[in-house]
């Protein structure tokens, strides 16, 4: 498993902490940027880089994204097929997201989370397996169908009444 990590300026410091934490734990980590603290950089750039990398192997690799609120990077990652990103604030929440929803990208809010909590969440994200229960997989499959646009039946054709001579005169 490769863990791709990325953050904008608001998440940069936490990214550096988490990267060191994960490397110290023996994980293979690829930093997708930003490489320097650059005020005003744009989170979609780094979120896209991580999401694109994870989408190459979404069933094995994982991603961690960090911005100030966590929301922006979460939105970006969830635009990619086969990526399920979860913005989480607790170990319990990420364990449930991994077990039930097989999330493969973690979003963190640098402005609202303590470093130790973020480390514990990242560790749980890496170590918690997906349980593969039928009901969980069925729901994930439904999400995949939404992503590729094949959910539901085609809309029925609108029934129209034949136009009469009288209708033509009125219209």
From TrEMBL:
GO terms for molecular function: intramolecular oxidoreductase activity, interconverting aldoses and ketoses. Residues 154-171 have a biased composition (Acidic residues). It comes from the Bacteria. Keywords: Isomerase. Pfam families: LacAB_rpiB. GO terms for biological process: carbohydrate metabolic process. Residues 149-171 are annotated as: Disordered. The keyword Isomerase applies. The keyword Cell inner membrane does not apply. Belongs to the LacAB/RpiB family. PANTHER family: DNA DAMAGE-REPAIR_TOLERATION PROTEIN DRT102, RIBOSE-5-PHOSPHATE ISOMERASE B. This is Ribose 5-phosphate isomerase. The lineage of its organism: Bacteria, Candidatus Wolfeibacteriota.
């Amino acid at each position: 498993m490769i863990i791709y990590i990325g953050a904008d300026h608001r998440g940069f410091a936490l990214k550096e902490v988490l990267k060191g934490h994960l490397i110290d734990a023996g994980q293979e980590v690829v930093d997708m940027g930003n490489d320097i603290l650059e005020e005003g950089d744009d989170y979609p750039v780094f979120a896209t880089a991580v999401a694109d990398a994870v989408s190459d192997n979404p069933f094995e690799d994982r991603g961690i994204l960090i911005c100030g609120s966590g929301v922006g990077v979460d939105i970006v990652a969830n635009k990619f097929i086969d990526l399920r990103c979860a913005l989480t604030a607790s170990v319990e929440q990420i364990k449930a997201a991994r077990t039930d929803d097989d999330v493969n990208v973690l979003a963190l809010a640098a402005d609202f989370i303590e470093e130790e909590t973020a480390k514990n969440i990242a560790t749980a994200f890496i170590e918690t397996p997906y349980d593969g229960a039928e009901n969980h997989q069925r729901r994930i499959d439904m999400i995949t169908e939404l992503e590729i646009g094949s959910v539901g039946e085609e809309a029925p054709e609108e029934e129209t009444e034949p136009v009469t001579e009288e209708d033509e005169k009125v219209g």
